[in-house]
Structure formats: structure tokens, C-alpha cells
Amino acid sequence: MEPLKHECGVAMIRLRKPLSYYQEKYGTWMYGLNKLYLLMEKQHNRGQEGAGLAVVKLGTQPGEEYLFRERAEGTGAIQEIFDTVHSTLGAVPREQLTDPIYAEERLPYAGNCMMGHLRYSTTGKSGLTFVHPMIRRNNWRAKCLTICGNFNLTNVSQIFDAITSVGQHPRHVSDMHILLEQIGHRLDREVERLFVQSRTFGLEGMDITHYIEERIDMANVLRQCAPLWDGGFVMCGQTGSGESYAMRDPWGIRPAFYYIDEEIVVLASERPVIQTVMNIASEQVQELLPGQALLVNRQAEVRLEQIVPPRQQQACSFERIYFSRGSDKDIYQERKALGRLLTPAILRALDGDLEHAVFSFIPNTAEVAYYGMLEGLNAHLNEEKLRLLQSGRQLSTEELRQILALSIRSEKVAIKDIKLRTFISEGKSRNELAAHVYDITYGTVRPGLDSLVVIDDSIVRGTTLRQSIIGILDRLSPRKIVIVSSCPQVRYPDYYGIDMSKMKEFIAFRAAIALIKERGMEALIEQQYQRALELRQRPETEEVENVVKTIYAPFSPEEISAKMVELLRPEDTRAEVELIFQSLEGLHEAIPHHHGDWYFSGDYPTPGGSHLVNKAFIDYVEQDHPQHL
Length: 629
Description:
There is one protein chain. By secondary structure, the protein is an alpha+beta fold. It has two domains: 9-313, Glutamine Phosphoribosylpyrophosphate, subunit 1, domain 1; 319-628, 3-Layer(aba) Sandwich (Rossmann fold). The strands form four sheets. It has a seven-stranded antiparallel sheet with strand order 3-2-4-1-10-9-11, with helices on one face. Strands 5-6-7-8-12-13 form a six-stranded antiparallel sheet. Strand 18, helix 17 and strand 19 form a beta-alpha-beta unit. The chain starts with 8 loop residues before the first strand and ends in a 5-residue tail after the last helix.
């Protein structure tokens, strides 16, 4: 499939011992920084547009910096920011560089609180201004705040109105900048609450500062802010005085996992990343629950608090299908199950003829589903062998050999060859080069005799299928090409983290519109457009219907798949082409604990999702098909 720009990745570390402890036990006070680097590199799949880190030092004196940040853009951003960190230490004499006391007092980035972020833009905005972590400075350490997150909020305008109504003036209208101001404002109020409280005890001077910093409670801050957030998120943050937090959305849309021992607190977007970096078993890694926050105070005391009540569980299924690393033990089995459950549909497409079929996959993310597909086909073939052997007929030695020799023919047919250079922008030349993104293995298919079945993890826009895959597979001269998607038809935008927001981007939607036109049902488009305009007047917090569901309703999934083939099949293709998709029922059977299926069903977990899909439909009609107005 064509790559999606999607959820970001977060990593957070809180060292619970002095740096001297790690120098003595692990041979370096940079133990935490090294772990942060690994956590970020192991999540490189989650963001290749930029990266950043922030480190807070405890115990600094007035006039000394205590919050350090590095950010960079591009696919090499992780390496760049850590190269910058190490370059600041390059001129330090070795004797001082290995002295944890000197490092803690004098060297940048020698802190106990640190977090990192990997960015994929979900808004189209680029530049260092939009790379996390972001900082809100203040002369009070306790009021200084840095935050990062894996999120996309659907009601940014509502939060913007809420904070500007009390006099705040954000400098940027982006969800992250607005969140920084919202959380920062409530942090100010928390500090002021503690300031007033300290005066009632007769404290003065630095005693007030110490009182405040020892008692800052980010749970109080989050309880004031989080009820207004609509969307999927994992929010992380640190104060200048040493309070760290991470919070997950109440629907559990975005993932977060953590590990705690007496030395360290670790949080990341994916479980196997923590397992690998910390060399621990999966059972030692816990999942942050929906609406829950992990909080670590200045004294490195850890607690979990329910910030907002959990809602109906809607953990993102696309995380399991495509985005997260397949090395997670549960995700690996789920992806195999997705492939295995497609066996009946594949057999129907082949009329049961496995003898004249070759099976392969689109590299690289569909490989695990491919193994599951082979398991399902082999299980079916074993049943067929058993039926033949138990037929009661006396079989000759040659017939027995033929039965036992029956096998599933699997080949690596498609090979990802090159990545197109972005400087080629002229349409025809770019499309011509796109045809060569994949290479093929010649001689794997018997021309005119074999069907070729190729599994992919998802089909969203169909661009790669049309420009490259179908054409390149047709060069092998198969009798039939069957493209199998391990997930259902992707019909709706995400809005909770994935960069796909325009209706015309979806080949399933374009197929439904084509069927509507073909059958003279254009009035349905106008009807749903008017309904969307009506619903646009409702408050963002109010549940509304998804008007796009009605666009798909008249057609079966098979009809839409057949129309997709018509739209995607190059004119010069000689082979018959068929598309097969996972069913919603199969999706939930394979991934039973992650019910978030709005990409496929249109059932958005929050009100904001339905409001935004209706807006996307309005934009589609007004911008792409104004003839329907």
C-alpha cells in the first residue's frame, strides 16, 4: 500500500536515582539519554518528518539553565538531535565528563526527567515551530512547561474559544500550541493555589518556592483541561521543577505502555519497544488505561490517577493492522489471524483451484498477514487431503504420492525496489517512474495457467495499485490477479491521528460515487449535502449522524470492490483482476480487544469525528463536484 502519514511516537523517562548511581552501576551517567535514544530509534516507524527531545535538570541554581531542548526536521532527525547533544559534551575533559556530580551541576542534558517525540504531521503544517516538544517559559520553574504528544484533537476551535475567552492570546492556531497555553494556564493556577497555601503557614522567600515545587500536582491541572479534549491522544509533559506526566484519551484510541522499577520509569507508544530497550518480558510492561494518567513528582514518586472517566473502549484497530511494530506478541498473532480468516473468500475467488495458484504479498508490512493466509490455506488443503484419503477407495501408491504432494505454492513475487525522488513533480514522468517502485520475480507464475494471489495490509487511495502493482504483476501473464486486503474497505477519514482527511482520497468512496452516477442516483448526493449543512449548525460536542454512511448504503461491499477494480485496472491489463477485502466481522474476530473501526464502519467514537466527516463531505461536494450543488 502507499505509506500513510500517521500517529506520532512518544517516549518518556524518569530516572529515580541520582546520576552517580547510574555511573557506578552502568558505567555512565548518560544511562537515561541512551535509553531515550533507543526508545526513539525503535519507534522510528511512527514518525519521519521530525523529532525532538527535552531534558529537565533538578537542583540547578538561579541563573543556570534547567530545561534543555533539541529539535530537527527530516528522516534523520533522531540522529541529528542526539549528535547535537553529544557535540555539546565533546569539549569536556574526560575526567569531568565521567564525573556525575560535575555533570549534574554543570553539563547540559544531564537531567533526571526526559522525553522524546517522533513527528508525522497530521495537519499539513511543517517547520520547527510545529515539532515537539514545545516549551512555555516562565521565571518560576514550577510554571515552566514542556509538552509533546501523539494526538489529533477534533475540537481545536472549541478549546481555542475557551482559552481566549479568559484573555489568553495564543501565537499559533495549532492544536499543540493551544494545548500548551491551556495546560500552562491551569499550571499557573496550581502554582498560585500552592503559593496562597504556603503563605497561610507563614512561609517566606525560598521556603515558598520549595513548598510549591514539592507539592505541584499535575493531576489537578489535567482534570481542569482534559474534559474539553475530543479526540485520540497520549499527552506527555514535564514542568521545570520536575513533575512528569503522561495521559491517555478516555476512549483508549491512541496507545501507551509503561514500565516501572526502583531505578527508572519508562513510557512509550509501543510495548515491544520497552521490552527490547529494557530487556524485560512482555508481562512486565503495563498498558496505560483509557482516561488514566501516569504521574511522577519531583521526588520521583509514581502514581496512577483516573483523570476522566473511561468511555466505551475504542482502541485503534489500524494500529494493529499497520502502524505498530509487528514484533509485539499480540499484534503478530492478530495480523496472522487477519490473513488466515480470508481463506474462504480466497478459495471462492479461485473456484477452489489451489493447484493453479501462486501466493505472495506486497512488501513489507503485509508479510505477517501473508503467513496467516498460508496457514489458513494449508489447513484447508490438509482437510482436502484427509477427505481424499478417507474416501474409502483403494488408492495406488502413485495416487497417494500425488495427494501428499499437494501443497500451497508461495513465492516472493513483488520486491520493493526504489523510493521515488520528490523533485520529479511532473505528472506523466512521475507516474511512469511509479510503475517501477516494485520489481517482480520472473518465472514464478506459469503464463496463462496460474492465478496470482497477492495480499496487502490495506488499500486506501489505490494509487500504488493503479500506477504500479497491477501492471507489474500482469507482466508475469497470470490468468487472474487477486489482490487481497487484510483489512476491510477503508471508507472514512480518521481525524484521530492519520493524515487522510479528504473524501476524494478514498478509492472506496470514489467507487461509491461512480456507482451512484451509473445508476442515476445523483439526488442522494444533494440530499446528504443538505443534511450535512443542517448538522453543521449543531455544537461540536453534540452527537450527530455520519451523512457519508448513506452514500455507501445502497451498495454491497462486493459491488464497491468490483467498481474499485474498474477504476484501478490499467487499460492494457490482460489478466482478470479481483479485489477481496476483510469483513468487519473478520476484523473484530482477529483483533478482539481493539474495537476502533471508524475507518471502515464510519462509527466515530467521539462527536468530533462525525462533525469532521460531514465537513469533509461538504468540502468534497463544493470543491470537487460543484455540479451537485
